[in-house]
Amino acid sequence: MRRSQFYIPTRREVAAQDSINAYLLTKAGYISQIAAGAYALLPLAVRSLHKIEQIIREEMDAIGGSEVVFTALQPQETWEKSGRWDDPNFRQIVYRDEEAGMTFGATHEEPMAIIVKEKVQSYRELPVILYQFQTKFRKELRAKSGLLRGREFRMKDLYSFHATEKEHQAFYEKCAAAYGRVFTRLGLNAYRVKASGGVFSTEFSDEFQVPCPTGEDEVWLDHTEMTGFNTEVEESMTNEQKKSHERVRSVEVGNIFHLGTKYPDAFDFKYLDADGARKSIYMGSYGIGITRLLGVLAELNNDEHGLRLPAVIAPFQCVVIDLTGEGVTGQKLYAELTAAGIETLYDDRDEPAGSKFADADLVGFPVRLVYSQKTAQEGKVELKIRGAAAVDDVELIPVEEVADRISKILATP
Amino acid sequence: MRRSQFYIPTRREVAAQDSINAYLLTKAGYISQIAAGAYALLPLAVRSLHKIEQIIREEMDAIGGSEVVFTALQPQETWEKSGRWDDPNFRQIVYRDEEAGMTFGATHEEPMAIIVKEKVQSYRELPVILYQFQTKFRKELRAKSGLLRGREFRMKDLYSFHATEKEHQAFYEKCAAAYGRVFTRLGLNAYRVKASGGVFSTEFSDEFQVPCPTGEDEVWLDHTEMTGFNTEVEESMTNEQKKSHERVRSVEVGNIFHLGTKYPDAFDFKYLDADGARKSIYMGSYGIGITRLLGVLAELNNDEHGLRLPAVIAPFQCVVIDLTGEGVTGQKLYAELTAAGIETLYDDRDEPAGSKFADADLVGFPVRLVYSQKTAQEGKVELKIRGAAAVDDVELIPVEEVADRISKILATP
Question: How far is CA A142 from CA A149, A178, A230, A251, A252, in A?
Fold first, then answer.
C-alpha cells in the first residue's frame, strides 16, 4: 500500500485521553473517538482487527464452530420470555428503542436458542456450536479506558448446545483450551481465573485475565499454574492458595459460562433422546472482546516512541522509506516485498525524513527499511526491527537480500 | 469442511415467506428470521457475504479507498448540528435511545465529517476516501421482501471529501465505474439510473438498478446504454427517451450522491488552499447494500430445486458425496480438492442419497461430485455442474482428473 493512498491520520499532538491505549492508538491514527466509549476504527485498526479475528476464527473452526452473524436488533418479546427485559441488571446496560420494542444486542442467548430450536429436534443433531464476530452495545455508565470498556465494541461470542451436562462440560474445557491458544498466538499471558457467573449464571464461570498495571480488574494469580481467582470469589480461596497467589491488576480478555438449561427451557427448546424421551438442552456461552484485545495489546506493547504491536497483528509488517528523492529503489523494494507476501507500506509522502521516522515508530511497523544516499553507496538498505519483543537493532543489508531476510525475521515467533 | 461439523440447517418445509429470496435462503439454511426485517445470517450466508465483501473491497481499494469501521452509535448533538435529529424524514427511520441521547447509525455523514476534520487542514491532505462494511439500522415501516428491505442490514458505504466540485465530480464518475465492475463481477446486469437526491441531496443522484420481476422499484431502462430513469424523475424524460426506454420492475443495489458542502459546513470543516484561503469541502456518499445483494442474487438465480448462485459467491464451490458406505474415496477427493484450493464441503452425514442430492441442489453447490458403487467400477466420479448459467449436465470423469477439471470449470466465467 502507498501511504499517500491510505488514510493514516497520525498526529503530533493529542488531547489528554483516559488511558494509554486511547492516547497511543489515537496519536498513531488507529482510532478516533466519536462519543464516550465509542471509537471509529480507522484503517490501521481495521487491518489489525481483521488479523485478530482471523486467529480466533481458525481456533473456533478447529473446535467445530460455524460462523454466523446475528442481528443486533432483538425484539422485546424474546427478552420478556427469558425474563431479561425487566431485569434491572440488564435494563441499565441495554440500549432500547422503547417505541419500536427493540433492544440492541448486548448479548445473544435468546436469538441463538430460538434459531437453533427451528432445526434441532433429535440428539443426532446435537451439539450445535455457533460463533460470530459482532458489534455489541452496552450502556456503560463508566465507559472508560479507551478500547478496554466501550459502549459499542466488537466481540466474538460463541454459543454451544449439548444433549447432556457431561458433553457440555467436555466442550467447555475444549473451548478453554482453544482460548489459551488464541491468547498465546497474540503474545498475551492469559490466566484462567475462577469467577462468579455474574448476571448470566449461578454457577462459577471462568475468565481469562491478562496482567496489566492499568487494568480495571484485580485478580489473584498463580504464576506457575497460570490460573487464579477474581475478587468476587476470593473468599473461596484457602490460606494455602492465598500464599501461592499474587494480587495484581489485570484486563479480562475472555470469559466462558455454563448457562445450564435456562435459555433453551425459556423457549421450550428440547430434544428427543435415543429412547424418544424429551429432554432439556445444556447451553454455554463463550466471549472474547475483540476491540478490547487491541486495546490491551496497545496498553502492554509500547515505548516512548509509540506502539510495538506483535508482528502477527501489526497492520503492516514493514514500512519502506526512500530518502534519495528519486524513489526508484524504494518502489522496487515495495514491489518485491509485496510480491513476497510481506505486507508493506511505502511511505511515498513528500515529508522530511524525521517526520517519516517518527511516524514509523509511532505506528509501530515491525520492520523499517530506510534507503538513503549513504546506504546506496554500499548497495545496502538500513533495516530496523521493532517487534514487540525486540530491541531496536539497526543493521545494513544488501538490497537483494531484503525480502529473504524479512521473511525469516517474521517467521521467528 | 465436513458437513457434520458445519451448521447447514436445510429444511424440508418452510412457512410461507414474503419473497422468493426469504423462502429459498431460509429453506436452504442460509438465513433465519428473528423479527420483521431482521434475519440471522447463518454459516452459508456468512461465507457468501464475505466473498461479496471481498469483491467490493478490492474495487474500493483500487479507487483509493481506505477501509474503516465507524460506530453505529451516534450522539444526538451531532445530528442536531446537521439538522437531522428533528428532521421528520430521518426521525421516522432512525432507531434511537431517547434516554441515552443516541441514534443507531442509519447513515454516517456526520461522524465521517467530524473525524476527517480532526486531521485534514490543507489542500495537500485532500482527497480523503473512506469506506466501511457496516451494520445499518432503519426503522422500516414496510420491512419486507426478505433481504431486500430490512431493518438491520449490511452495507458498504463510502464517503469522499474533495477540495473542489470538479475533483468531486471526477471521483463520482470513478466510483460509478467501480460500481459497474462490482456488479459485473457478481454476474448482475446493473443499470445506472438517474434519480432525485431523496432525503440526502437537492441534486440528482444515480442509482444502480437490477431488473428483477419481484423488485419493489419501477424504472425506465435503456437496454443499449444500460442507463435509465427512476419514477421520481420520469417527468424529466423527453418523448424520444420514453420510446427508447422500457418500464420494468427492479431492485436498487447501489446509489451515489452529491452531498455538496452541507455536512462539512455543518461542522465548520474547511481547508486552506494553496493561497491560504479557507474553503468549503465537497462531499459525496456512495452505498451498496451487501445483504440486499445476496437477496437479489437469490431472487434471480434459482430453479424448482433450489439456489443457483454464481460460483464466485457460492458458499462452497463443490460438494462431495460418497455413497459407497466406506467414504475412503470421498475423503480422499475432499482432501485433494481442498489442497487444490477448491472450497469443498464433504457431506459425511448418515443420510439417504436422495436427501443428500436434494440438499446439494437446494444449497446450490456449483459442482456436485458423486462417487458410488457404479462409478467406482470404472474408477470414475459423477460430476454435475450447477452454476448460475449452466444447465445441469452430468458426466463421468476419472477420479484422478477431478481436481484439474473443477479448477478449469471454476476458472471459466
Answer: 8, 31, 20, 15, 16
Rg (CA), chain A: 24
> Which of A63, A73, A126 should one mutate to test binding to chain B, selecting the residue with the greatest count of B CBs within 10 A?
A73
Strand partners, B156: B133, B288
Fold for the domain defined by A307-411: Rossmann fold (3.40.50)
Separation in Å, CA of B30 to nearest CA in chain A: 10
pLDDT tens digit sequence for A196-212: 877 777 778 999 999 99
CB contact under 8 A, B34 and A68: no
User: For B253, what's the count of Cα atoms within 13 Å in the CB-facing half-sphere?
Assistant: 29
Number of Cβ within a 10 Å radius of residue B392 = 13
Q: Estimate to the nearest angstrom the gap between the alpha carbon of A313 and the chain centroid.
A: 10
Q: Is the peptide bond before A75 cis (omega within 30 degrees of 0)?
A: no
Q: What is the pTM assigned to this prediction?
A: 0.96
Distance CA B75, CA B72 (A): 10
Closest CA to B9 of A120, A158, A121: A120
Q: Answer yes or no: are the C-beta atoms of A271 and A122 closer than 8 Å.
A: yes
Parts of chain B with a pLDDT under 50:
none
Question: A3-300, superfamily in CATH?
Answer: Bira Bifunctional Protein; Domain 2 (3.30.930.10)
The ipTM assigned to this model is 0.95
B196 phi/psi in degrees, rounded to 5: -75, 170
CATH of B306-411, one of 3.30.390.50, 3.30.420.270, 3.40.50.800, 3.40.50.1580: 3.40.50.800
Instruction: Decide if A216 contacts A148 (C-beta within 8 A).
Output: yes
Residue A201's nearest CA partner among A244, A161, A247, A256 is: A256
CB contact under 8 A, A73 and B41: no
Q: Which residues of chain A have pLDDT under 50?
A: none
Q: Where are the alpha helices (DSSP H) in B120-213?
A: 165-185
Alpha-carbon gap, residue A371 to A30, rounded angstroms: 26
Long-range residue pairs from A242-248, CB within 8 A, at least 24 positions apart, any chain: A245/A220, A245/A221, A246/A220, A246/A221, A247/A218, A247/A219, A247/A220, A247/A221, A248/A211, A248/A218, A248/A219, A248/A221
